[in-house]
Write a structure and sequence with these properties.
The structure is a homodimer.
Chain A lengths: L4 E8 L9 H23 L4 H14 L19 E7 L5 E7 L5 H11 L4 E3 H10 L7 H4 L2 H8 L13 E6 L5 E7 L9 E2 L9 E4 L3 E7 L1 H7 L1 H12 L3 H9 L10 E6 L5 E5 L3 E8 L5 E5 L3
Parallel strand pairs in A: 3-4
Antiparallel strand pairs in A: 1-5, 1-12, 2-3, 2-6, 5-6, 8-9, 9-10, 10-11, 12-13
Helix pairs in contact in A: 1-2, 2-3, 8-9
Chain lengths: ~300, ~300
């Protein structure tokens, strides 16, 4: 008998604790609590893992301190652009979008593609037109640009690579034992126009299979893509019989010589076991397992 | 001691033999021979697997009957758009592009990104501007549109889904034992603007790791992406100890209930063993192993 459960992340990367005031840390935790609650409520009411991960990620897309949707990083042109993906562990259906603007909730556009089966991945204007066509909420670029991101972008010279590659994501298992994963990001600050990271790549940032695991990654997108890390976690569980936690921990260290960089992974198993792994000094994260209390944390040691 | 070797494909999908005249079959084989020769020559002269797969794929991008570069499928707007990827099995570096136009050789843009390390994946205009910036050959849309594709597009009503999802790809091992994979496509005929298939997705259409295999896939892009099939081949070899041929054959049948669709896979191992698998009645394909003669074929039974 599985328990329903949800795990979320809002990015893992090396940060100097001095750069995070107690007030900011509290705000991060508030954003994590809200997202966890949005997803957990759905599971508690008998809803699907897919609906739960969408709700949790939407909540983080709305929260201005996380790098997805509103408050996303600005690329080298000073514009926000988004990537997102959702995968259903039962049907192996997936939906994903890359290099899109205007769409208030990129994860919901990915979810709409998943529900339609094909195409799985849409980029740029084609994706934006699709979103408009199905009546999703659209916003002007100004909606997404917070004063904090704008200031940081303008102080580019002083930028210390802090908060450069955060991403938000969620994995869940519902009362029926179905797994789902979702990931959403605003990419890197100052990234090249059109740069796509691991988040919308099925197998890299996002993967789910009911028999093995649902996985969402965060960290240095290029290293995660080249390592196909979400699928490597699945492969270790499926073919090597690793525990989910060991698979996640090993994936954050995989081919270290070639794939160095910050990495964070969250996952859930078909029995409701959860796993979190990261090779950084913090990962904004949270989880709640059926019958338990919500847990949120930022730093490694807490 | 490994042998150098190259394997190529130019698409796998169910086709009615009556739709392929003997002349057309000969032209397919001519295109395959040229591409094989372009790649093999490099290996024979001591060149790298990366240079060999780029050369073979460029040759197929130039060949007007294959669905990549010149002669690519036209999307629902009647425009050609390209996806491509290259991966280096030694460094695990990768380069990829999606939803691009104008670039004469999409695989060469992917290769240029690989050589620069970051970003790995660029989409749309950002990728096109990057290509122009580094001086790659650019062409007007008219260059890419062959009369055959144009006529087919105009006869959309009569279209029988033939030649819908061809892709070209190559995998190779060089004299130093380094592996590489490359894939390039014009996507589906009449595809949604911005639709991206498996070809540029590291782990799905393209993957390489020196210790295990280099893999390039073709077929129904959505099914290959959802199955992350190139990486599944690697995982079966790495964790389940499968032979490369068994891994490729099993990957074409993986999760058949959820991932049905045409699939073709080519691969090469660190010892120069080659593998080809497809679940269709044809895959345009070829290979040449050090010291051997070139082999090309179209139909399953030949």
């Amino acid at each position: 008998m599985n328990k329903y459960a949800i795990v979320i992340h809002a990015g893992a990367e090396a940060m100097d604790p001095k750069d995070v005031s107690p007030e900011k840390e509290q705000k991060y935790k508030q954003g994590l609590q809200q997202a966890l609650q949005a997803g957990y409520e759905i599971l508690e009411n008998g809803g699907s893992a897919l609906d739960a991960v969408e709700a949790a990620v939407k909540s983080m897309e709305d929260f201005p301190l996380f790098n997805a949707g509103r408050g996303a990083n600005l690329n080298e042109q000073g514009e926000p652009a988004f990537d997102a993906a959702v995968m259903d562990g039962k049907t192996l259906k997936a939906g994903a979008v890359c290099s899109i603007r205007y769409v208030k909730h990129p994860v919901s556009l990915a979810y709409a593609l998943l529900q339609k089966s094909k195409p799985v991945l849409l980029s740029g204007e084609g994706a934006e037109e699709y979103a408009k066509g199905i009546g999703l909420d659209m916003e002007d670029p100004a909606y997404f640009i917070t004063s904090e991101r704008k200031e940081k972008w303008e102080e580019k010279e002083q930028e210390k690579l802090a908060e450069q590659h955060d991403t938000v994501g969620a994995v869940a298992i519902d009362k029926d034992g179905n797994l789902a994963a979702a990931t959403s990001t605003g990419g890197l600050a100052y990234q090249h126009k059109g740069r796509v990271g691991d988040s919308p790549i099925i197998g890299s940032g996002t993967f789910a299979h009911n028999d093995y695991c649902a996985v969402s990654c965060t960290g240095e997108g290029e290293a995660i893509m080249r390592g196909v890390l979400a699928h490597e976690v699945y492969a270790m569980v499926k073919y090597a019989g690793e525990s989910l936690q060991d698979a996640c921990t090993k994936a954050t260290k995989l081919y270290d010589a070639q794939l160095k960089g910050d990495k964070g992974i969250i996952a859930v198993s078909p029995t409701g076991e959860i796993a979190l792994a990261f090779n950084t000094n913090q990962m904004k994260r949270g989880y709640r397992i059926q019958g338990g209390e919500p847990v949120v944390a930022v730093w490694k040691e807490e």
